[in-house]
Amino acid sequence: MKRFFIQIALVSSLVYSSFGQANDSLRVILSNSEGAEKVKILTELSRSTWHNYPKQAMAYSQEALKISEALGDSANISISLRCIGAIKYYQGNHEESLDYMTRGLDIALKISDSLLISQGYNNVGVLQYNLANYQTALEYFIRSREIKKRIGDVHQAANVNNMGLVFEILGEHDLARSYFLEAYEIAVKSANRSLQIYTQNDLGISHINTSELDIARDYFEEALVLAKKIDNVNYGSVSLRRIGQVVHMQGDYDSAFYFYQQSLEASKSIGDKRGIAEGYSFLSKLLCDQGKVKESLAVLNSSHEIANGLKLGHQLLENLKLYSVIHQKNNAEERSIQYLMEYIKLRDSLFQEVAVRNLSLIPVKIKEERDREKLAQQNTELHSKGITNRLYMYILFGVIPLIIILIVVFKKNYKAYRVLRESNEEVKRTHELLLQSEKMASLGMLAAGLGHEINNPLNFIKNGTLTLFRKIEKDNKGSIESLEPYFDIISDGVNRASSVVKSLSHFSKEKVDMDEKCDIHDIIENCLVLLNFEIKYKSAVVKELTKKSVMVLGDEGKLHQAIMSVLSNAADAIEKDGTITVTTKVNNGNVVVNVKDTGVGISQENMKHINEPFFTTKGHEGGTGLGLFITYSIIEEHNAKMEVLSESNEGTEVTISIPVWRSK
Ligand code: ADP
Ligand code: MG
After folding, report:
1. pLDDT for 444-491, tens place per residue?
2. How far is the CA of 31 from the centre of ligand 1 (A)?
3. How, if at all, do strands 539-544 and 578-587 pair?
4. Can you give the residue range of the structural domain that contains 533?
5. Cα separation values, 95 from 49, 88, 98, 256, Å
6. Ligand 1 near 279 CB (within 6 A)
7. Same domain for 559 and 464
8. Which of 62, 299, 344, 379 is most buried, judged by most C-beta within 10 A?
């Protein structure tokens, strides 16, 4: 009961609804515009008024058409023709409407405007549907939809809904409903409220046809509320009529009468002849059910007259059926049968055998197509799911192990890196050790000589001291002059001992300095002193040193080691009666130290290897093969250069040039 009053409230405001503010402002703009802009506004105004004020809407569209024709604006001519067609359709003037629609469509085709063509097809389809040319209607709807799909138009709710209408008529309720639902969803999504009402009404009708009256009523009521909200009298009247039908079927004749009356009033207010015809028909049925046969027939006649004029095939069929029922109720059996025959005749003409067969195939085809679409969609879903699954699998079996491998590899690499770093340090250490070991080798090699060198002066000192002691003891009073040679021997021995000790001090140096000012000649002299014992019995030493001493910047100990290596190699190369010539020259800011020997020389083959560590031809004599290798590294450290020239059995010449620090 509560529900009922809500509707009364809704209904009362439906018919007398006023224009929205949007229209008022549009009219203001209209007075200030012209040309294509004016056409646009006129069309907008026509659209927003054609459901409630068809005459006004018609005036707007006529003006729009006139301006468009004057402008030669084909697209707007097409649109205006369509609008006029739509208004004619809402008034139930199907043939006139079809004429305008077809003209509009022709122009759209001529200018190849896909959207207009698609809308045109849909409109023609609606007209064909109302004229009960269902197959043709469906063909137009499908064509329209294909274009809309192609151009990606989301506003295809009306189109989809209309396809549902055809299936509903054919009794394909499930299929019809799926179309209505799809249309409803599109309408809601695109916030097209007018279309939402349209589809809600059709969903309701579809539920009436399957006797789900409560659901049907919910749809109609929702549609009615929305229709009231947006002032759509046309669609609101459908909702009212259909709510009436529901309560009628539920046996609430009074309410039904009220709703039918309201609906008729609304339809009449907008000149909706199709709505009036249906409203009268529904009212007639109610009157019949109430036993008011006379009134029932009178009202039905009114409906039938309009339906005949509009060639409303479906309404005519419904009415003929109703005539038959009423006459049967009135015990006019003959007339009843007569109407029944008429009904069958009309039905057969509308649903021609071939047409029906073809039509009945269309739902199957479309069903198949939709199934295929669904399957394809499922497949793509499955596919994408498969991809996702595969992705997870890849992650699980590919990426994760990859990460693990990467971690392992990284760890290994890091380990390797550390090992490498350690071994690098080891190499450095070894290198240092090698330097040290060469040092030690040199020292070891010279140990005997050193002993001898130190022992000899010490012997001089010892013998000299002893002799001196005896001499002083014997002569007691001898002259000082006779003692001088003994003193000379002692001092010579002491000097030599001290110079050997001084030479040794270079080797004992652990610290590496590159900023020591080294006297090259001192170094050479020191080396020769150390090598004296080895050299003196087999070779002469010729020194051709610059008069001035030459200073270089570097590590004295290392330079000492380098020159020592070269000199000792020269000594090694000489078996007997040889000469070692040591020359120094200053040339281009470099001191050139040249060590030339008349030794065995180096074969061409060995020449390639002399810088390699551990290359030695003196294995049996305790050669280490490190001398030149270390010498090169020392020379490099001092930005110096070394060159070795040699010829077998001729001798060897080693040239070292070191940047001069400053010459004294
Ligand atoms: P080692 O002296 O311990 O053998 P080196 O690196 O000092 O190692 O010298 C490498 C090799 O080069 C020597 O074994 C020798 O065959 C050759 N060599 C170096 N200097 C000379 C030289 N002045 N005369 C002949 N051969 C030389
Ligand atoms: Mg050597």
Report:
1. 455 445 555 666 666 667 677 767 767 776 776 656 667 777 777 777
2. 114
3. parallel
4. 511-659
5. 22, 9, 5, 32
6. no
7. no
8. 299
